[in-house]
UniProtKB/TrEMBL annotation:
GO terms for molecular function: DNA binding; DNA-binding transcription factor activity. Keywords: DNA-binding, Transcription, Transcription regulation. Pfam families: HTH_1, LysR_substrate. Signal peptide: none annotated. Residues 1-59 form the HTH lysR-type domain. InterPro entries: LysR-type_TF_proteobact-type, LysR_HTH_N, LysR_subst-bd, WH-like_DNA-bd_sf, WH_DNA-bd_sf. The keyword Magnesium does not apply. This is LysR family transcriptional regulator. Belongs to the LysR transcriptional regulatory family. SUPFAM superfamilies: Periplasmic binding protein-like II (SSF53850), Winged helix' DNA-binding domain (SSF46785). It comes from the Bacteria.
Amino acid sequence: MDQLNAMQAFRRVVDLGSFSAAASQAGLSHTVLSRQVKQLERQLGTQLLTRTTRRLHLTEAGTLFYRHCVQILEQMQAMTLELSEHQQQPTGTLRLGVATAFGELELGRWLPDFVERHPQLQVELNCSDRFIDLLEEQIDVCLRITDHLPDSSLVARLLAHSEVLLVAAPRYLERHGTPTSLDTLVDHPLLGYSNLPHPQRLYLTNPEGEQRDILMPRRLSANSPMALRAAAIGGLGIASFDRFIVHDALLDGRLVPVLQDWKLPPRNLYAVYPQSRYLAPKVRALLDYAQTYYAQPRWQA
């Protein structure tokens, strides 16, 4: 038995929580992966996993072995990377996950320069507005703009702050009037992002610290920020966006801010990636570049 392969199989099963997911990621059959783990248990003389119809559980011995297994495999990976001369420069395929709006509006500003700096690196983009499981989908780095990061074993590096603001097209305001208070705002339709739990609800704070929770009428909801952006520019109603999504439209006047004294909860741009003692050069290169790029404010009024 190849013990290193068996250790990798065992770690993959534990990380992903099932033999099926681990087999799919490794490109092996469920039977082969299960056999590797069983052979490992026989060689060690102890049970590492208990299997039920729904879940896998580590035994006490399995927990101890998993901890050492991770250390050994990461040391092997670090040694391989350090000894491989071609890995001293970013090479191979960098799998980068981003939200669709970020991919369409932001990456064109800096990704070409990043790629030109690393000619041996290929970038594979995963653009999606759903939550991405980095381990299951083998994503190296994910750039996320969010107001909340769930607890996980992933590392999150803060890159930039993202203001969220209310906007509307000038022609919409000419036809329907410009809201001057929250009491008049609630008479206007909100273009809502349907992936939110409450697409028509806004949480606002004024300079004095007063907080208000308001519910606006529904005119249009969509699961695409870019579709909502087009609808807002088209004059269908008021919408809330991260500034980077509407930055150019604010500069050229296609959209204007609404009720600027009332602020929506801000969000942050993070680079999220799996925890590892040794970062691959391709991952480190992307993290360092993005950190430097977003150190300068990019979405100012």
